[in-house]
Amino acid sequence: MKLADWVVRAVILATFFALLFAPEKWGPRLGVVSLGIVGAWALLYPQGVLGWAKTAHPRIDVNVDDPSLWWIPRLIGGFFVAFALVIVLFSLAR
User: Fold this and answer.
1) Distance from the CA of 50 to the CA of which of 29, 40, 59, 67 falls in 20 to 30 A?
2) What pLDDT was estimated at residue 1?
3) Which residue segment(s) compose the domain that 78 sits in?
4) What is the mean pLDDT of residues 35-56?
């Protein structure tokens, strides 16, 4: 799963630079793509999301391998994927 973690980081970094240097051209497209990829990553690998949260906030004392906590990142990931799909569907309907 380390490869998936690096792929997600690369997509986030590419989205950041797209928003920084060419926001009108690449910003919305890469924004929706990164939203979908991060959502799918949270659905498939909730331990990674909990690990990122634990790294960002050291006060959070969670065991990332505890399956009883995995529903939280999966719920957030599901919302991200659903929101990305809604954006794509509405943009195709225009």
Assistant:
1) 29
2) 63
3) 2-93
4) 86
Three-state DSSP class for residue 39: helix
50/69 Cα distance (integer angstroms)? 9
Count of Cβ atoms closer than 10 Å to residue 51 Cβ: 15
**Average pLDDT of 63-69?**
80
DSSP H helical ranges for the chain: 2-21, 27-44, 46-56, 71-93
How far apart CA 46 and CA 72 sit, in angstroms, is: 8
Q: Is 23 helix (H, G, I), strand (E, B) or coil?
A: coil
d(CA 63, CA 13): 27
Q: Domain count of the chain?
A: 1
CA angle 58, 62, 65 (to 5 degrees): 125
Separation CA 11–CA 59 (nearest Å): 28
Mean pLDDT in residue range 41-63: 81
